[in-house]
Each structure stands twice: as structure tokens, then as C-alpha cells.
Amino acid sequence: MKIIVAGGDGFCGWPTALYLSKKGHEVSIIDNFSRRKWDGELHSNSLTPILTLKERIEKWKQLTGKTIKFYEGDLNHYDFLSQVLKHVVPDAFVHFAEQRSAPYSMIDREHAVFTQVNNVVGTLNVLYGIKEFVPECHLIKLGTMGEYGFPNIPIEEGYLHVQHEGREDVLPYPKQPGSMYHLSKVHDSHNIMFACKTFGIRATDLNQGIVYGLYTDETSMDPALINRLDYDGVFGTALNRFIIQTAVGHPLTVYGKGGQTRGFLNIKDTVRCIEIAAENPADLGEFRVFNQFTEEFSVQDLAERVQKVASEEGMPISIDHLKDPRVELEEHFFHAKHTKLQELGLEPHLLTEDVIRNILRTVIKYKERVIPENILPTVNWR
Fold first, then answer.
1. How large a percentage of the chain has pLDDT more than 90?
2. How far apart are CA 152 and CA 138, in angstroms?
3. Which candidate in 104, 148, 181, 212 is catalytic?
4. 20 CB contacts (<8 Å, ≥6 apart)?
């Protein structure tokens, strides 16, 4: 299968490209290196040192004999995207190429506008490119569980059966996003659903939970293939941030009461979910939605799990509760369905103490790279 991975230099895209390549697929990466540029803007870095994409791809070929092609460019430039689609003629287009940080989108007006334009226009270009040049291509789009918000009823996988005044219908599940980033994802979903219905293209929207972890089997093959690991208050996710705070002796920073509950999954499951979606494509004209996570935890739960492992490793650490910089419920009901991917063959890697311990031991090796002023949140939703 010929597969394009847009955003293939990023945290999810890079291990996905390697995984699909190892499985025998013909993989091409599109990237414009925005994620690396944002490190410069924010005076931040990946905790793990990462080589240039060219060096990574060359090392992959040395180790496996497999070639990953690379096209440098921006999905917002339709002429560029069109040429790539016509040249590759992909069977599947895996779309990771968006600004993915809620805090980044809430820095100020400029960052909100950039996030919405970059994400929504880029996805619109992909939809029209598929329609015009590769109408059989299956769009696999990374969405987010954050699109749903936190309703006081269970969250279905994309759609809700509604009965109202004697009539019934199956409708898109109502969205209550909590940031300009999450709003951009909602706009994406609406645009993709419209394109499937109107143009007859096929798409799978993967509403992904929060991803944790560092290694996949492929990125573990050589230090040159290591994935990036973010820890700052803008791009760092809660679990990875807690583990890095432990390594440098900083209290674990829980926002508010810590009752915010989310869906989580291991990076190893992220790459497997992409494979499952690619091997089981949506039908032409179908907009399919999978909730892509394996477990639910509150932020306080995660902090206590890390604290327990840290104590066993002889690294006692305290938990601090900070005033929540976000506008969100700090305690809420959360129950979301997530059965479709497991029915298609996903076997989850769960968050065990050994998983946390292994990440912690790796993080300790690179703790001198931590920039201390980036540990605490700097973006206020208000």
C-alpha cells in the first residue's frame, strides 16, 4: 500500500512512518518542520535529542534497507500538495500535519488565528486534493477526544441516536471543545463529513486521547531513530511532564483539583491504530469515527501513579496543586465508548508501573537538557 504520512517528523508521525514502512508499505512523508520551529519560538526543546529528518531517514534505510520518501512543504500550499498527490498516488493519506497544542492556540489572537487557518485550510486542501487527483484514497485524519468536551452523558463514537418529538435520527455527537485548537478539529470534522457526503470520498476520523510513551519497537532500534519528548507547559502532556518533573526533582504540577479525566493511549497503540484504519478502510462516501484511546485517568490519578513509582526508585516527589490556567471543569463525569478499534484487532498496551518506570529511567539520561523555566505553565486561557 502507498501511504503518505503528513506531519511525519512529529511525535506521532515519525513512529507511524517507521511502523508502516517496516510492515512493508511504501511510505512518503510530508512535513514543513513547523514543530521544530515552534521550539525556537518558545525557547524550548525536545528532552530527547533528535536528528534532522534526512539523517533519520538515512539511518532507517541503513538499518532496514527500506526507503521512506520525503517531500518538504506545507499543506496550506495547494500547488505543492497537488504535485505530491499526483506523483505518489497514495492509497491512504495519514494526516498528522496540524498545530496540535491547545495552550499554543490560546497564547493570543495571532496564535488562535494561525491555528485555525493552518489546521482548517490544510485539511480542506487535502479534501479537495483527494477529490481531484486520488478519489479512491482513504483519508485517515487524527482528530481528538477534546472535540467532545465533557458532557454529563456517555460519549459515543462519533454519532448519537436521538429521539425528539416523536421522530428519531442518528446525528453527529454534539461538540463542546475547550480551546481554539480543539475548535479547529471540530471544523475539520464537519468539513470532512461534508466532503464524504458530497464528493463521495472515504475518511476515518480518529478521535485520539492523550498519547504517552517514548519508544516503539522501531524507534528503539537505534538512538538516531529516537522520538521527540515534550515536557514544557505548551506542548508537554501531563504524564510525560510529571515523569520529567520527577527526574529533575520538581514537584508534580496538577492543575486545580486534578479531577480532569481524559482518555489515554500508548504511542505503540497510536501506530497500530493507524495500521488498522489503513487495512480496514471506510467505504466511499463514508465518514467513519473511532475513539482512539485505551484507558481513562484523572490528572490526579496520573500524578499519584508517577509518585508511587518515583518513591520505589528512591526519588520521593511531592504533588503541587496549581491554579488551573485553563477554563475547564476540574471534576466531571467522563465515560467514552472506544470499542471499534479493539473489535478490528487492537490489543492495548496498558499504563503499568513498569511502563512509567522505563520512561523515567530514560528521561533521567537526558535530564540535563531540561530548561527549568519551561516546566510551569505560561499560557492563561483567560
1. 98
2. 34
3. 181
4. 3, 5, 27, 94, 271, 274, 275, 278
Would residue 125 be called left, alpha or beta, if left means φ above 0 and alpha means ψ between -120 and 50 degrees? alpha
- With contact defined as beta carbons under 8 Å apart, do 358 and 294 qualify? no
Q: What is the pLDDT of residues 244-263, one digit of tens each?
A: 999 999 999 999 999 999 99
Does residue 185 carry a catalytic annotation?
yes
Three-class SS of residue 266? strand
Classify residue 319 by its DSSP letter.
E
Catalytic one of 144, 204, 246, 261: 144
> DSSP assignment, residue 259?
B
3-state secondary structure (DSSP) of residue 65: coil
- Does the annotation count 181 as an active-site position? yes
- Residues with Cβ within 8 Å of 65's Cβ and at least 6 positions away in sequence, in order, are none
Q: Which among 241, 214, 160, 220 has a CA at the least distance from the CA of 11?
A: 214
Q: Which long-range contacts (CB under 8 A, 24 or more apart) does 364-368 make?
A: 364/247, 366/47, 366/48, 366/49, 366/229, 367/47, 367/244, 367/247, 367/248
pTM: 0.98
DSSP 118-183: HHHHHHHHHHHHHHHH-TTPEEEEEEEGGGT---SS-B-SSEEEEEETTEEEEEEPP----SHHHH
Supply the angle between the helices 13-22 and 267-279 in degrees, to the nearest 10. 60
| Contact call for residues 260 and 299 (beta carbons, < 8 A) | yes
DSSP 184: H
The whole-number average pLDDT for the span 1-23 is 98
Q: What is the C-alpha separation between 103 and 272, in angstroms, rounded?
A: 28
